[in-house]
């Protein structure tokens, strides 16, 4: 495992880390025992950073992380998020009273005295423009409740706005072969300001595994069923904003990336890791096999310049016109 510095912070994190949305819920059925085995396998491989949120299974993934990392608080870093347990458009949930309550609840579930990275969870751009919430986070940081803070964003515009606040130390963004826009400007500006980049949804909700067909059916409780067209939250969070059938078609056209790299999953993650402006990639998982597959990206060859150019052209010509939602 290799480690990368999270922007200008004192945190050094594994370049492959893991997100825990899937083991909390909203990705179909999960098994807690298998989730814990997956977390243990990741840590055995040198993973020292996990991303979660208070709404992942209504706090369930935070509780699982507490169990998995018991006795390793100094070695395993945890990032969590807040605001989506309420009405994200209501300014009241960004006040000191509300944010402090969210923070204390997460600390309790995580069984920790400090959160390593506390992130605002995809707030509306109006909240970011107002900026009052950052003053609240400054206060929590001064008290030692949080070590650093950042923002999970939906769009490049939101990310650039966050860079105007000097204590924002990390941005969490959607970035994958189907969502390449952040690399046009955002990543370079973030690096220049000492802001780390966490990449979520690196496999475009599974499209970039190459395992789906147009006839694939998802469980009713899986967001890939109930948010396919943005019915519940930003459509960009599901299949990178692509219509499912179009995404499946495009993924077939990308099957070549697996040549010499084992499979599309490992290739898609390798493509992200090859970007020097990325701090880490945080794929999700529901079992040990998926953890192993994601970790396999560490061992596969990087992309050549010709391959990278081919993927840039493919994105611009074939993918970008079909993306929906903020990006």
UniProtKB/TrEMBL annotation:
InterPro entries: AKR (IPR020471), AKR2_Oxidoreductase (IPR053135), NAD(P)_OxRdtase_dom_sf (IPR036812), NADP_OxRdtase_dom (IPR023210). Pfam families: Aldo_ket_red. Residues 15-314 form the NADP-dependent oxidoreductase domain. Signal peptide: none annotated. CDD domains: AKR_AKR11C1. PANTHER family: D-THREO-ALDOSE 1-DEHYDROGENASE, NADP-DEPENDENT OXIDOREDUCTASE DOMAIN-CONTAINING PROTEIN. This is Aldo/keto reductase. It comes from Paenibacillus gyeongsangnamensis.
